[in-house]
């Protein structure tokens, strides 16, 4: 196959770093970077081009202004470009803004759980997938915004992206690293198999500075050393949940981008690779997967049936504030999520209908910014 063309939509904190890393891969042909704001987006693409060239890569990068809210324009553009893969990191607001609030305020608001921000992450993915459905593009679409839940909702609407990125695959390296240290062996000798939802991250990445216990959603973990199951022997679950010394906020983009670049490479390869990814084919949560030849499929496991794996992830939704996802894609929130948003932001939403996502996202963003302003934090501009 000739060197592939990748369309990267969203060039913010995650999309920008992912673009930089993709520009330094010798299996990548052309990259089309796109976002809403041409000034900001073309500057980001120019920087990636210069950085890659400085490192010795040819870096064929082009910028294209695209507004995902304009579904017809996006469908026409995808049809014309016909890329080999679409990666979208576009979102109406990034995930770490609440961390900028004063500690006590941030802590009060975080009781709402991550799913509270659902409409912000859902809106543009839904627009993108409508555009994909409206054109003849049949290649893979990978998405970053909260795929463990968003892609599951889109699946109910017949709009599931091919796969999500990040999340479960950010946890796997932590376990491999700590297991390898415990076994005093190179990480390359350790195999980790994990079934887990985005909601597990809160427990997995508890900071060492604040290791207060948090609720732990269900998960399935198997650690193998040289083909032998050592999960119990080395206290695998304890390693998974050990507090970590890691920075907060946008620096995390490198972890997600590292995982994303590997996943993109696997999609564009003829051979199947065993990886981990969230939401393969719109399933809830994250799974061990086989990826190759533009396709993804959950990896069959010896010790867990496909139904049991899905159940683990469905039972994890509430830990992210999601009570249920109904057949028509309506999301019912956990009572605590509704209560905290009502008390803190004056935002009232017990059910999110997909067709109301954009309007609810706009209201949530406005109320959150006003809340931050009252707490003495000005959130403009965000990049
Ligand atoms: N799955 C994971 O592991 C993982 C990890 C990290 C982040 N994320 C998610 O990834 C998403 C992006 O995070 P981020 O930190 O990169 O956010 P960000 O810095 O705010 O970037 C958002 C990007 O989306 C673009 N965008 C906004 N509205 C658009 C529209 N209508 N059409 C086209 N592009 C539009 C923005 O373009 P303009 O600059 O032109 O406005 C910007 O480039 C968030 O949902 C975040 O939660 C997922």
Structure report:
With 383 residues, the chain is α/β, with parallel strands linked by helices. Among the domains are: 5-164, NAD(P)-binding Rossmann-like Domain (Rossmann fold, 3-Layer(aba) Sandwich); 323-374, no CATH class. It is 40% helix and 17% strand. The strands form four sheets. It has a six-stranded parallel beta sheet, sandwiched between helices. It has a three-stranded antiparallel beta sheet with strand order 7-8-9. A three-stranded antiparallel beta sheet has the order 10-11-12. A hairpin with a 2-residue loop joins strand 11 and strand 12. Helix 1 packs parallel to helix 2, helix 3 (71-81) crosses helix 5 and helix 5 (118-133) crosses helix 6. NADP nicotinamide-adenine-dinucleotide phosphate is lined by residues 9-15, 35-37, 40-41, 66-69, 89-92, 94-95, 121, 124, 144-147, 164-167, 170, 256, 382-383.
Q: What attributes characterize this protein structure?
A:
globular; three-stranded antiparallel β-sheet; 383 residues; Rossmann fold; binds NADP nicotinamide-adenine-dinucleotide phosphate; six-stranded parallel β-sheet; 15 strands; alpha/beta
CATH fold topology of the domain at 5-164: Rossmann fold
Total DSSP helices: 13
State which percent range the strand residues make up: 15-25%
Q: What integer is the average pLDDT?
A: 96
Structural class: alpha/beta
Overall helicity: 25-40%
User: What composes the largest sheet?
Assistant: 6 strands, parallel
Q: Report low-confidence residues grouped into runs of 5 or more.
A: none
Which molecules are bound besides the chains?
A: NADP nicotinamide-adenine-dinucleotide phosphate
Tell me how many strands there are: 15
Judging from the principal axes of the Cα atoms, what is the shape? globular
Termini separation (Å)?
Answer: 37 Å
CATH class of the domain at 5-164: Alpha Beta
Spatial extent as radius of gyration: 20 Å
For the record, the CATH architecture of the domain at 5-164 stands as 3-Layer(aba) Sandwich
Please give the order of strands in the largest beta sheet. 3-2-1-4-5-6
Subunit organisation of the chains: single chain
CATH level 4 superfamily of the domain at 5-164: NAD(P)-binding Rossmann-like Domain
H and E string: EHEHEHEHHEHEHEHEEHHEEEHEEHEH
